[in-house]
Structure prediction request, 756 residues.
Amino acid sequence: MPNMNMVQALNSAMDIMLTRDPSVVVLGEDVGYFGGVFRVTESLQKKHGAYRVLDTPIAEGGIVGAAVGMCANGLRPIAEIQFADYIYPAYDQIVSEVARLRYRSAGAFSAPLTIRTPCGGGIRGGQTHSQSPEAVFAHVSGIKTVMPSNPYDAKGMLIAAIEDDDPVIFFEPKRVYNGPFDGEPDKPAQSWAEHPKAEVPEGYYTVPIGQAAVTREGSALTIVTYGTMVHVSLAAAEALGLDAEVIDIRSMVPLDIDTIAASVSKTGRCLIAHEATRFAGFGAELSASIQEHCFWNLEAPIMRVAGWDTPYPHAFEWEYFPGKRRVMNALRRLMGEAA
Amino acid sequence: MTSRFHVPAVPARPGEQPDFSYVKVAAAGDAPRPPINVPVLGTAPLAEDLVRVLDDRHRAVGPWAPKLDAETLRRGLHTMMLTRAFDDRMQRAQRQGRITFYMRSLGEEAVSAAAAIALRDGDMLFPSYRNQGLFLSRGLSLVDLMSQLLSNSHDMCKGRQLPVMYHSAERRIFSISGNLATQFPQAVGWAMAAAIKGETDIAAAWLGEGSTAEADFHHALTFAKVYKAPAVLNVVNNQWAISTFQGYAGGEQRSFAARGPGMGIAGLRVDGNDFLAVYAVTAWAAERARAGHGATLIEHVTYRAGAHSTSDDPARYRPKDEFDAWPLGDPVDRLKSHLVTLGEWDDARHESLSKELDESVTGAWHEAVSYGTLNEGPRLDPSLMFEDVFKELPPHLLAQRDELLAELAERGESDHA
Ligand SMILES: Cc1ncc(C[n+]2csc(CCOP(=O)(O)OP(=O)(O)O)c2C)c(N)n1
Ligand SMILES: [Mg+2]
Prediction:
C-alpha cells in the first residue's frame, strides 16, 4: 500500500471522485492551475480540466453561494476555503442557506456540498491563519462537521463527505498535513512515512462520517479529542505511562456518543482536548453529553484542555497552543495527583 | 445554441512569452482633466482610459501634470527608495529565519508614496498589507516597523499580529487586517463620520484587484455612493492575486475603475507606476471629496514584481521574466529619470542616497533585533496575550493567565523581559 501524507491522501480522494462522478467539481481560490496554497488540489485541473476544477474570484460568500446553485442544478461541488480564518464571509450562505435548504423546502432542494478548509495553528500563522472554528458550525443544525487527524481517515472521510447527500464542512488540521505533531515545536518535524495511518489504499474506499475511532485502547482514563490534538494527547499519555484510551471523534456532527460513552463508562475518567478556544468550544458539548450518558460511572469531574480564550497570538504561539505539557498536567490532575 | 462556460484567459504561464497586449497604454498627457465637480458619468471615459503624466522622454506633460517642486519630488523618490531598501532587507531577514513572514511591494512603490504626499496629514488611511510606503511616508520609524515584524519587546502589536500588520493611531493609519477587503467599508464609515461631524478630513483606502471580488468592496461603493462619503478608494491592480490573474476578479475587457461610475461614484484609471500621475489623480479625488462631491474609485495599474509573500513561489504560475516585459516600467526608475531630466538629480546622488538608505535600514535592523527576535533576546511577557481581548480582563481570562504562568514557571521560563 502506498504511503501518503495528508495532502496526498486528500488529493487522491478528490481525484478519484472527479473520475468516478461527472457531477463532482472542485472550486476555490488558487485551487486550479496552481494546485492550492497547500497543494491539496495539485494537478487536478491539469487532469480533469478547467470546467471541473475552477479557480474562483476571492469571494468566499460567492464560492459557497455559487456552490449551492450548482447543487440545485445537479452538480456536487467541493469548495475550498483557503483558510478556515477566511470562511466568515461565507457564513451567511452556510448558516442561512446551505444548512437549511433541505428543511425549508421540505426536501425539494438540498445542498450536497463539501466545504474543505485548513484549520488550526502551529505554523506561525498568527490570528488570521490559525483558527479552529468548528464549534460555530457544529452549533448550526443541518450541516455535518468533521475533522480527520491522519491520511487514512482524511481520504476515506473526504470521499464519504463528497458522496454524502447533506452538506459537510471538512476541517483539515494543517499542522498535520505533512506529519504527525506531538505538540513539541522544538523537536524536528516528523513525517508520515513511518506512521501506520499513512498506509493509504490507492483506490476508492470510505470512512463513514459519524463514527469515532478508538486510536489507543486503555482502561485508566479516556481522552476525547480530534485533529492535531489526537497526536498531542497520545504523546502526553505515553510520556506519563498512563493506560489511557484515546478517542478520535473525527466527526462532531453527527457525534458518535455511543463509542465515547462506552469508553468513559469503562474508565470513569475523561479529559477532553481541542485546540480551539475553550469557552463554548466543542468540548462543552462533549462534556455535557458525556455527563448525561456516564454520570453514574464518573470517578472524577470531566476536564478540558483547550486553546485560551484569546485570538491566536503570533509571538506566543507555543504558550497558546495546548501542548504536551498542558495535557500532561491535566492528566495528572485527572488521575488525582497534585499538579 | 448551448451555453458555454468561460474560463478567463491567462496571458502567459511559465515557459511562455510574457504577453501584456491586453494593457492598453495611452500616450502620456492625452487624458483630459475634468473639473473636480464633474458629474459622476463625466468620469466614465477616464475610468477606462489611463491617466499618464510622464512621457517617454521623462517629461511631465498634459493637463494632469501636477505642479510639484523638485524638493517634493525628491521626497517621493526618497520614500520609494526607502520602501525598496526596507523590503529588500526584510525579505532577507525572513530568508535567514529572523522573521516568520514578509510581503514586499516591489514594483508598486509609487502607489503609496505619491498618495501619501497628495493627502493631508489629518486624512485617515486604511491600507492593505502592501502599503508599507504609507507608513514610511508618514514618518513611522524603521525600528518601530521592524519590531512589529520581529514580534519583539518593542512591538506595537504586542506580539499578537503576523508580520506587516502594522497600525498607527498617531499618524492616522488604521490597523491592517489579514482578512481581505474589510478596510474598504470601514474607510467609508470613517468618511461618513467626518461628514456627520462637519470635519474636512477625508478617508483613503487601498485593496488589491483580487480583493474587489469580496462583498465588502461592493458594500463600500454602495455606502460611498448613498452618502457621498468623502473617501478616496484605491484598487491596486498589480495583475496578480497570489496565483490568480486579474481576469479572475473581473478585469477582462473592463477596468476596475469602471465600477466607480457603475455604482454611482467617480472613477479614474491611472498608470500606477507614474508617480506624478498617481499624485495628480489622488489630489483630484481628495479635493473632490473634501469639497463635498463624493468618493472616487481609483484603479492603479501596476505590476507585483515580487512573490505574493515569502510563502509564495511565482515561478509556478507565471513567466519568470514577466516584469521585464511590463509596459509601464519601474516607478523608481521613472521618477528618477524625470528628476534627472529636470536637472534636479543625477546618478551620483542616486547612488549615494541608495547607499545611505541601505545603511539606515541596516542600522535600524541592528537596533530592532536588540529588542529581541522570536527566538533570542528580550521577549514580551506572555501574559500580555490575555490583555486587550477586552478592555478589562474578565475572570475566566484571569484564571487562564494564571494557569499559563504556572505552566511557564514549571517550564522554568517565567522570567521573560
Ligand atoms: C477573506 C480572505 N480570503 C482569502 C485570503 C487569502 N489571501 C491573502 S492575500 C490573497 C490575494 C489577494 O490579492 P490582491 O487583492 O490582488 O492583492 P495583492 O496581494 O495582489 O496585493 C488571498 C487570496 C485572505 N487573506 N482573506
Ligand atoms: Mg493583486
Observations:
- Strands of chain B lie at 124-126, 203-208, 231-237, 240-241, 244-245, 266-271, 296-301.
- The longest helix of chain B spans residues 70-95.
- Chain B touches chain A through 53 residues (CB under 8 Å).
- The mean pLDDT of chain B is 96.
